Amino acid sequence: MTVTDTAHRQRRSPLTWWRGGGAGALLFLLPMLLIFGLFSWWPILRTGVMSFQHTNLVEPAQWIGLENFRNVLHDPLLPVAIRNTAYFAGLAFVFGYPVPLLMAVIMSDARRLRGLFSMLAYLPVVVPPAVAVLLWRFFYDASPSGVFNSVLGKVGVGPVPWLESSHAVMPALVLEATWAAAGGTVIIYLAALVSVPPELYDAAEADGAGVFRKIWHVTLPHLRGIMLITLILQIIGTAQVFLEPYLFTDGGPDNSSLTVLLLIFNYAFGSTTGGGDYGSATALSLMLAVALAILSFIYFRVTRSWSTS
Amino acid sequence: MRIKRLRSLAVVATLASLSTLAACGSSSDAGESNGKVTITVEGWRPGDGKDTIAAVKAQAAAFHKENPNITVVPKEWQWNAATFPAQLAGGTLPTTFRVPFTDTKSLVERGQVADVDSVIRALPYFTQLNPTVLAAAQGTDGKIYGLPSDVYASGLHYNRTLFTQAGLDPEKPPTTWDEVRADAKAIHDKTGQAGYATMTKENQGGWILTTLTYALGGQMETQSGDTFTATVNNEATKQALGYLHDMRWSDDSMSGNTSYNWNSINQAFAAGKVGMYLSGSDVYNALVTTNKINPDEYGLAAMPLGSPDGGALGGGSVNVVSAKATKAQAAAAVAWDDFFRVRKYVDEASAVADAKLLVADNQPVGTPTFPIFDQATWQKNQDWIKSYVNVPQQQMQSFMTGMFTQKLLSEPPSQTQALYGALDPAVQKVLSDKNADISSLLDQANDKVQQLLDKS
After folding, report:
1. Thinking of the domain B154-314+383-455, which architecture would CATH place it in?
2. Is there a contact between B117 and B143 (Cβ–Cβ < 8 Å)?
3. Which of A8, B105, B372, B418 has its CA 20 to 30 A from that of B394?
4. Residue A253's closest chain B neighbor by CA?
5. Is A252 left (phi over 0), alpha (psi -120 to 50) or beta?
6. Which of A164, A269, A270 sits opposite B259 (nearest CB)?
7. CA distance to partner chain A, nearest, from residue B433 (Å)
8. Min CA distance, B396 vs chain A (Å)?
9. Which pLDDT score is estimated for A215?
10. Interchain contact A142–B (C-beta under 8 A)
11. Confidence (pLDDT) at B51
């Protein structure tokens, strides 16, 4: 932006804005503003307000200061939920993050059947999540006749209580979540890979580079920006994991798959606290949102210099 | 010119959107004018057939004829703890609706249902209501918050085919918990299916553990005046978890699948994968309509008791009134609940009409329920609907005879759902960890429940 631009902008008054057709712009913005305002910003604002209140949704809410936050911080289940969520995010980072990248790189090499492969990779994303969970329940059936257990039984392993053991449950949930979500990220990577100039591969080949050196020296540097974005999206996504523990285990066994979001849900709508504690639910939601906002801010500051390819 | 038109369009659009917002914010009409009152009521459940819907509408019209000042608008509704708060806050709840016993007390404690004490006490049959059943609709303040209906006692459901395959006599279901354990082992050893299974999550693990505790003579809470004390770590609960532990680990008669809620255990049972489990006596209805069980395989036994103090935990629904209803609406709502839900237990014409409707809609008639009033009134009702019965009552004989000799016990009075929720992890731990320390698990749960009781 030039100095002249800035000076010009400073001179604009509401009148010039109006004369310049600002109202027309507003008209086109209005539907978006309304929809976002009503369904996103207003609920966020209400969440902030409710976290300082006690309400039964019938009588007027009472202001109770930081009581809800104190309740949440003193809940012995909070550290459990944070630990489980971090464990889920960690496992998803180690196992779930590289999978779409590898798939995309391999698929982009297979030029003839790329369309078929990307369709197959994307298929799990199209399956409705509840249906996917139902399907995976058969895979994870703990009896010897379960899908995974009957396969393992052939090589003399198991039966493994996939969802019934506090050790196996989180890896099992991560496996399903990776299967369900990888397709979307694969498509993003595939789109980014198209932008890599083919001459670079040819040049690398002329220099005697093999497949792995080509990936390391040509492909990955080009994907760096996208990878950093997908990583923060994955961190934010896994910190808010809810669907898998809710539908598979309801946080069990013995709270070993209780996540922060499931705890929020339970505060408001049932389970361990008996539900109805909307104040604590909104307080923890707010704390999670602030924590994730700070994390994202730090992440972007730290990775700013790496993200340009 | 074009810009000018755009500008005026923008102004109109802004105003229109603001007025829409204002309309969203304004509350709906309270439903009263000139002594006439309109109420919305829970009419039918999602998925009910058009015959049911037509029949409910006909009942609403009949009620209007009897009470010309009250207009009843039935709507599709089913209790769901997760959507209830939004419906309450948004004003879309029916004026009156049914809530399971387990959730009624939580709603009462949070002030989310109306106080209809005086209206219910004025009903002609109020003094004849079974006090244990009425307790489910009572707050800790002693006031009545609704009219109970569809009451059942818990029982032992068993698969007759698996019994036969295991060399057991399906006409002689177990009557003690040692027999349950032995039969479960026989079923698993001979058929490979789970001999016994139990719900473990969504508070239902704690609910069934409480059922088992009651059968063994324990109590989860004691009351002294307004003070409640948690007794979750009592001997009967320890014994109950001990039974589960031994069936899971020593006998290996529960199979590895232990992650069950109400729906999934019904599904597994109807599919022949579970020999025995505890649930409410009315679960047969869901097993038939949702899980398509083969009726020949089904058996229902009275709750096996382990102590003279033991009894069967009761369940059912309470017809409550939304906290947002006006006084006139609340009175009208109770009148409707009396007409639609309770009168069939005391009035022959209503009973027969109800049974006819159910048969026409291929719904089960004759599934054991527990008397809301005394046994004689219940028996009369059974005689009225006898020719419409379409469930295999001879396979439920053990329960039908045991039901009147057993004590019917009501749920823990304070923080019921929270108490159940605190027990879920204990049940899950015992079934997932061979070396689980039952006493310390129950001590932890007890501390948690006591904290909640102290807060309420």
Report:
1. 3-Layer(aba) Sandwich (3.40)
2. yes
3. B372
4. B428
5. beta
6. A164
7. 8
8. 30
9. 85
10. yes
11. 75
Chain segment A76-120, per-residue pLDDT in tens: 899 999 999 999 999 999 988 999 988 888 888 777 787 888 888
Each domain of chain A, given as residue ranges in start order, spans 1-42, 67-303
B323 chain-A contacts, CB cut-off 8 A: 56, 58
d(CA B317, CA B380): 22
Give yes or no for residue B162 having a pLDDT over 90.
yes
Quickly state the pLDDT bin for B410 (edges 50, 70, 90). confident
pLDDT for res B445: 94
- Arithmetic mean of pLDDT over chain B: 87
Asked, colleague to colleague, whether B32-152+316-360 and B154-314+383-455 share their fold, the answer is yes
With beta carbons less than 8 A apart as the criterion, state whether B361 and B332 touch: no
| Residue A276, burial from CB neighbour count under 10 angstroms (0-12, 13-18, 19+) | buried
Which residues in chain A have their CB less than 8 angstroms from residue B425's CB?
Answer: 252-255
Give the nearest chain B residue to A22 (CA atoms): B7
Which contacts of B110-113 are long-range, i.e. CB under 8 A and separated by 24 or more positions?
Answer: B110/A56, B110/A276, B111/A56, B111/A58, B111/A59, B111/B323, B112/A56, B112/A57, B112/A58, B112/A276, B112/B84, B112/B88, B112/B323, B113/B145, B113/B146, B113/B320, B113/B321, B113/B322, B113/B323
Contact B417 A269 (CB under 8 A): no
Could B258 and A274 be called an inter-chain contact, meaning their C-beta atoms sit closer than 8 Å? Answer: no
d(CA B78, CA B80): 6
Model pTM? 0.82
Q: Which CATH architecture has domain A67-303?
A: Orthogonal Bundle (1.10)
Distance CA B264, CA B244 (A): 19
Q: If pLDDT is split at 50, 70 and 90, which confidence band does B215 have?
A: very high
A64 interfaces chain B, CB cutoff of 8 Å = no
Minimal Cα distance from A29: which residue of B?
A: B10
* CB atoms B256 and A273 under 8 Å: no
Three-class DSSP category at B300:
strand
Does A56 reach chain B within 8 Å, measured CB to CB? yes
Domain ranges of chain B: 32-152+316-360, 154-314+383-455
What number of H helices and E strands is found in chain B? Answer: 18, 12
Cβ-Cβ contacts under 8 Å between A and B: the total is: 130
Pairing state between β B312-321 and B96-100: antiparallel
CATH number, domain B32-152+316-360: 3.40.190.10
